[in-house]
Amino acid sequence: MRRIIKNPNSKIIKEDLKYKTKGDNSNLSIALLIEQKRFCAYTEEYIGINDAYDVEHFNPNFKNTPQDNYENWFCVKHKPNLRKSTKWFEEILHPTHDLFEERLIYNDGAFFSRDENDISTQNLIVLLDLNNEILVKDRQKYIARRKEAIEDIGKTPFEYFDKKIKNEIWVIRYLRAIQTEFDIDIWSMIPNVQEE
After folding, report:
1. How far is CA 42 from CA 81, 161, 167, in A?
2. In terms of CB atoms within 10 Å, which of 88, 97, 123, 124 comes out highest?
3. CB of 174 within 8 A of CB of 142?
4. Cβ–Cβ under 8 Å, residues 177 and 142
5. Partners of 106 in beta bridges
6. In whole angstroms, what is the distance from residue 4 CA to residue 23 CA?
7. H helix or E strand, kind and range, residue 53
8. Which residues contact 41 (CB under 8 A, 6 or more apart)?
9. Helix and strand totals (H; E) in the chain
10. Alpha-carbon gap, residue 62 to 42, rounded angstroms
């Protein structure tokens, strides 16, 4: 999982979009999807045209309160959202925290707290089930296949991922793993999404 940077000039802020408990939230969900370049905030998987996705309230205790705002909303795939723990932990690392990627470390398919005493980061890992055994193995296999493909075609990681982004962006997953394993800024390589 990578840090999510919220845009101070977001359409959501400019147009004062609100989450509606009853009614249509498509304007809000599309705005979040566009800001996140169509990538799920939690799984870092591309959200395709046929994928179900949700407006996620990171802290569910804020839902339907004045604290439930742009900073608490993320676009996430539906199934991973269902997998999120229903137990809320009081101390938790927020996905927008300035030191997010320094505190939450990626290594060989799994996520760890840099500091074993960092309860907030450990709680985030548990809350989002980031180290689910199936997910860890899937990340490892994904990276191994990319390394093999890069070696087979004799290109640099940048060239390989640049071509994938241009021709089949839907196969790009696990942005933090790519960033760490290949030492490239994959997020900057992905173009901004236009209004739908």
Report:
1. 8, 21, 24
2. 124
3. yes
4. yes
5. 111
6. 27
7. strand 53-57
8. 1, 4, 56, 74, 75, 76, 95
9. 9, 4
10. 19
Residue 123: predicted pLDDT: 95
How far, in Å, are 1, 56, 66 from residue 93 at the CA level? 12, 16, 21
Residue type at 137 in one-letter notation: K
**pLDDT score for 88:** 84
DSSP state of 194: P
Q: Report the greatest alpha carbon distance in the chain.
A: 54
User: Model pTM?
Assistant: 0.93
- In angstroms, the Cα distances linking 187 to 92, 112, 165, 175 are 24, 21, 11, 7
Whether the predicted pLDDT of 195 surpasses 70: no
Q: What is the pLDDT of residues 45-73, one digit of tens each?
A: 999 999 999 999 999 989 889 899 999 99
- Give the tens place of pLDDT for each residue, 57-115: 999 989 889 899 999 999 999 988 888 877 787 899 999 999 999 999 999 999 999 99
Report which of 194, 165, 48, 7 is spatially closest to residue 184, judged by C-alpha positions: 165
- Distance separating alpha carbons of residues 186 and 65, to the nearest angstrom: 35
Torsion sign across C-alpha atoms 120, 121, 125, 128: positive
- Taking alpha carbons only, the member of 77, 68, 59 closest to residue 21 is 68
Task: Give domain limits for the chain.
Answer: 11-189
